[in-house]
Amino acid sequence: MACEGMLTQVLGAVPEARAHEVAGFKAMFAHGGRMAALEAQEGASVSGLLADLDDEQFTRLRFFAEGAGAEFKEAPLPTFAAAQGEGIAFDEGGWRAKWAELMAGAARSFMPLYGRAAHHPLPLVFGQCLARAQAQINAREPLPTTLRRAGRPDDVEVIELATPYRGFFGVEELTFRQRRFDGGQSPVLNRAAFISGDAATVLPYDPRRDRVLLVEQYRFGPLMRGDPNPWQLEAIAGRIDGGESAETCALREAVEEAGIKIDRMIRLPGGYPSPAAKTEFLHNFIGIADIPDDAAGSGGLETEDEDIRSHILSFDALMALLDSGELAVAPLALSALHLYRMRDGLRSAANG
Predict the structure, then answer these.
(1) Binding site annotation covers 296?
(2) Is 304 a catalytic residue?
(3) Beta strand pairing call for 199-206 and 282-289
(4) Whole-model pTM?
């Protein structure tokens, strides 16, 4: 069903197709495993479905493939992605389990851009659509409802959904009705939301030395708010890519931003930093690590134009910054308070 959903989004409808076998090729994983590529191999063959696409469907497919990072090449028979594979044979069952729903979700966000002027490189936009699809899957993980109302599928009636902007982030505008606490329906409402994927944060802590590592960087949000000093102290953080877990993201970002290896991850409660208008959900961790005196330095990916420096602070210095208000990034403040609660136990376990 997820594959049919993706075809419907990409082509506009599921085309008629017939079984076919392509001789002289093998199917390989490509683009991080989310797509398949055909590679020439004597004696091999690939079984699949062969469809005749009209010009509009072919143009739509080409648009989607460009965003997903694939390219078309002339071949005796129509092939989807002819990019070079990654040395791992394609496993349809494994792909369906990990990628089918994600790619269908990305197509739902990406294909409405077809025929519209592109303000950003299509692969960049597609990557964000994939992260958005991952966030929607993550959102199904239930959170406790011991006090708050437990939602039901019919609580919201969607009347119209519009996407006035889609780039590195997105803006979606929803016209809807919602169920009220008294059981009735609200009047027709119109709200806009800032769309992004989920993110992961990790605060590295060395319990033997009783110190943490923070990163500092120039932040666009404070700049656009009018803050004269946009440099912010933060926990290590990053956007969760499509097909990536929150923990894997946090471990990856620790290396990219600070060059530090986390030995053990402690998951903290996650949450929405601003639920009135933002879809972002933060997955927070304390990362147990060795933080020697020379651990501080500079980091960040040149490909993302990141300019990051790291700081080593004693736990007491961290608390002093929290009290003074200099820690103005809420996820770091929240993680610092969780560390305050856990600190004695972590130090006792580390010092035996």
Answers:
(1) no
(2) yes
(3) parallel
(4) 0.88
